[in-house]
Amino acid sequence: MTDATDRPELLSRREMIEATAAALAAPLLPAQAVTAPAAVALPGKFLTAAELALLDALTDLIIPTDDHSPGARAALVSGYIDGRLAESLDPELQARWRSGLEAVDGLSQELNGKPFMQAAPDPRVAVLTRMAAGEADPKTPAERFFTELKRWTVRAYYTSKVGIQVDQEYKGNVYQRGEYAGYDAK
Amino acid sequence: MTLLRVPPPLEQDVDLSKTYDAVIVGSGAAGGMAAHVLTSRGLQVLMLEAGKKLPIEQELRSMQWPYDHPRRGDAPPGYHSLSFNEYNIRTPPYAKGSTFKHVMSYVGGWGGSDYVKNILVDEKDHPYTGTKYAWVRARALGGKTNIWGRLALRLSDYDFKAKTHDGYGDDWPISYADLQPYYDKVDLYLGISGVKENLPHLPDSLFQRPNKLTLGEVRMRESLKNMGRVLTPYRAGVTTDGLKHNRYRSKCYGRGACDRRPGGCDIHAAFDSPTGLIYPAMDTGHLTIRTNSIAHEVLVDRNTGKARGIAFIDSATHKSYEAKAKVVILAASTLESARLLLLSRSPQHPNGIGNSSGHVGHNFCEHVMGPGVTGLVKDLVGKPPTLDDGRPGGFYIPRFRNLQDRQPGFVRGYGFEGSGGFSIFPGNAMGTPGFGAQFKKEVRDHAGAFIGMGGFGEVLARYENYVDLDPDAKDAWGIPTLRFHYQFGDNERKMCEDMVVAGREMFEAAGIEVVGTDDKMLTEGWSIHELGTARMGSDPKTSVLNQFQQSHDVKNLFVVDGSSHVSASCQNPTWTIMALAWRSCEYLADGFRKGTL
Fold first, then answer.
1. Which of B6, B72, B486, B490 meets the CB 3.0–4.6 Å disulfide criterion with B66?
2. Residue range(s) of every CATH 3.30.410 domain in chain B
């Protein structure tokens, strides 16, 4: 790999991190509109604005922005999940997400005495830590919701442009015109 | 970059008033090969395909980024892919009572269901009954070759003469020497990539340039040499250097979508029957195809008892038709061809055509899979990403059991398919515990450091494993369905236990940390390698076909697909299916000219 081929990726990563900073500062939905290609995003909305904000905060705690790459918020993970929920023909799935988000607020009340979105960053992490404690064998509603929430967040993030191109720096899905990459068997 | 695409040839009009030289049922690997050989010998051929002719490039979209798809490759709401639990907790028909509008086999669940939703059958229209079985069917021109796994292996006399070697089952009526020239022809006509290893139990092909290995795979290869075993780059039915004689197929550019969805190559570097065999056969002017044509009976001449054609239903209009031909060739897949034989009852053939032996549907075998090992190549943790998945597959470890040695618990053997390195989706993310910055970094650092492999083992051919017709159940076109009487036995269970032990041993010997083992056998049928329901043999009392896949009972009836295989071996069957079909169709064409059919 030459510098010339590396540079566009580095630039785009920096751009992405800047976009994340903007997304953190700006109201949620307009920020999505800036980066989401309209033709590809699912149009539907299932969650209320408050539920969506909560989901967005949760996904971005699961996969946050770090010095390497933007996180779930910049990758528009919550909007993607909401779009899939909106078009789902499975009322049980929709109900599970709604009650799951409720359970998060319930746990936050229990731990912090206030709803999740009104809690400060550290108490928020405490809520998620409690939810994640049963990851290997989830028992409470909040623990079970964490498993599903994380699975969808992971799926959505690592199939997003941010996840594939910036975080994973994926090299494939290209035409290799000469030698194939890799090592000879001999 | 765009490639020039040559559109499919214009189709000839179907003329059902005429008697064709040959009618072929099915357009997959076997049917395509029959069409290629027979049209090149000048026969006028009609091919019937039950499924649609699809705009396949638009279906596959091999280079579409996940984020350029509204559901990241998933099918729209209303589509459901069957899961392992559904196959095992319930019995077929699996789609019965489902609230989903469309139900697909488990293949849809590989993470790309939108790309195969029109290729796989809708289980709702295609029920079957009996014991649990994950039956994967693709009804479309080209059949399962549109999405096959591409591992293209030869069999050897360890397989053809397996009974001589270990006393179990039956030998094939041919040896490797009989088939070797036809394997060569298939290699040259369709293209195959790989590395010569000079193994008696896995003969080399005439390879084009191989795919390469990743660092972890190279380390495994070096380590296995000390154990007398081989790890070889995936032998892929893919043209890596191009084929001058075929204008419908591009050479492989290592784009690497092969592994992230249920197969499919929209530049046709990977073999598929339409571009590899059928379109060139159409260019001869001797091949007519009719899609949407569901064959349900081999028609019989009441005077001679010979086959005179095929009765079929148009899948869209539900109207019935007859196609007349001097020779009938079934290539509908192992299970569908058996079904068709059993459906074709007449006074001359009361148990189904070609079934005087009573063996049609029996000796049903395949490959068992599921057990495998995942390992971590520790010094690859934290290394920068490399392009590791731009290839049709990773590696293959050929069989090493019961060749010179005798295993105490089981006969026959198994091979491993696997790969290591970076891929478009970091599979480790699902299994990495926790959340937050540390989780994210751990996923990133480990993404390319894993290597995994799974076994494919020979399921013994047993008379008592069989399919027959369900007396009551019918498909959406009123055709009786298959009923399964099939299950794995003790030999398969013992073999699967050994896969885990041997897999772990090989990883550990290579200094690869074993981070997970899977000892679960996947449901019967999972390998999509069903074989042996109309086996070849020299004795008409215990076999259905002779060594040229010709019915012992009906001289102008041939069954050229996997149903003819006497045993499953542990090597993937597609290349053998095509080599056998080539050989049999040469014999057929000779007999046709001489008038001996």
1. B72
2. 212-266+367-458+488-523
